[in-house]
């Protein structure tokens, strides 16, 4: 008897789930790099390690975060809103909805591509509706898997 | 030999886990709808797509987000703090703590109901302690499952 | 045939995954306690329950959140960015990468310790690079598991 974990569907789930997480973890790295480059931090102790500032300069710096950094933070938050739900949905989909390998692969690939393109649109501030379109494609993909999983156990 | 995925406990987990995710994903939709209705966005490129503003108007709009939108954002963030941990806890609970079907069903139903009521209290700004009560019920439900799972593997 | 859920690796995963979630859920409790202690809330209805304020006082309170509370909120957000991805990565690692029990235990223990120390550094505002170091150790641990999982299914 083959375990569910040895099916190609589950293998595809692990592959694309892990790649989505890797994409999301990269946002933490990017935030760190941009914080260093811009010299813009959220905590007072982060400043004193890299050069002394007067109390007034420190207060001003903390009160006005860099706009580009805020953009990256929002992009990261959008990943946090979408990628963990996608992976949990994917788990339900693979374990409960008995999907074909093609169905798994295309759901997972379209989601991952939509999130990568979403981040590119967000970070480069590309004109709308490019970002909205990327978001929608990923969101609909997750909903499609979620509805299949709910239908399977109803 | 029946796989763990064919138990009614696991089926209940998939059903209520998927419904909780659907509830959380709806917050993204609601945010989008309210942003359109209020004409309040977080990024400069989101404004230029829907009508031209002078640079000063744009700056003012970006600096003062709509209070109702901020409320929905906090409500969504509260879901993000609670719903993915609930699902991961539920997975540990079902796989490790060997719960009865009744125990599963009631934990999952109470949690889901508490989160739906929490959002209603939050969005309608109902007087406290209504929202606090809803939050606490969901939080205690998650803790109860988490403690059972920890006890089972200790 | 032993199920994957009866392996000591999976048991270690449930134990440390559940402890990480418990650590993260504690941040919600801490936020609540500090909100009460500081009398600093994010919503107008939270104030009217605990004492009447004039509209101007209320507006001022809502506009200037307590700095210590903001610090706890950022600390909680950092947990949300790192702990659910760790658990999902741990699931992929245990199910797909066929790790030894020692490898599991050490990855999980180091991650959990790094997150607890990270929160201590954050909340007490310890001088940098203490917090950066804790973050990096946990982040690298997650990446190590993620790369092993991706390599296993490639």
Regions with little confidence, pLDDT below 50 for 5+ residues of chain A: none
Task: Kindly report the average pLDDT value of chain A.
Answer: 89
Q: Could you say how many structural domains of chain A there are in total?
A: 1
Assembly state here?
homotrimer
Which pair of chains forms the biggest interface, and how many residues does each contribute? A-B, 31 and 28 residues
Categorize the overall geometry of chain A.
elongated
Number of helices of chain A: 6
Number of strands of chain A: 0
Helix content of chain A: over 70%
According to CATH, the fold-level topology of chain A is Four Helix Bundle (Hemerythrin (Met), subunit A)
Q: Based on helices, strands and strand pairing, what is the structural class of chain A?
A: mainly alpha
Radius of gyration of chain A: 20 Å
Strand content of chain A: under 5%
CATH homologous superfamily heading of chain A:
Membrane associated eicosanoid/glutathione metabolism-like domain
C-alpha end-to-end distance of chain A = 26 Å
- What is the CATH top level name of chain A? Mainly Alpha
Catalytic activity (chains A, B, C): RX + glutathione = an S-substituted glutathione + a halide anion + H(+)
InterPro entries (chains A, B, C): MAPEG-like_dom_sf, Membr-assoc_MAPEG, MGST1-like
Family (chains A, B, C): Belongs to the MAPEG family.
Subunit structure (chains A, B, C): Homotrimer; The trimer binds only one molecule of glutathione.
């Amino acid at each position: 008897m083959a375990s569910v974990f040895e099916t190609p569907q589950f293998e595809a789930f692990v592959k694309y789930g892990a790649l989505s997480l890797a994409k999301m973890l990269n946002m933490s790295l990017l935030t760190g790099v941009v914080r260093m480059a811009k010299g813009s931090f959220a905590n007072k102790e982060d400043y004193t390690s890299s050069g002394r500032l007067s109390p007034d300069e420190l207060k001003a710096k903390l009160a006005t975060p860099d706009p580009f950094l805020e953009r990256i933070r929002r992009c990261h938050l959008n990943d946090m809103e979408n990628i963990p739900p996608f992976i949990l949905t994917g788990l339900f989909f693979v374990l409960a909805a008995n999907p074909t390998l093609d169905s798994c692969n295309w759901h997972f690939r379209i989601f991952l591509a939509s999130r990568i393109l979403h981040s590119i649109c967000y970070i480069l501030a590309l004109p709308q509706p490019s970002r909205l379109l990327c978001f929608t494609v990923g969101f609909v993909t997750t909903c499609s898997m979620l509805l299949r999983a709910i239908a399977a156990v109803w």
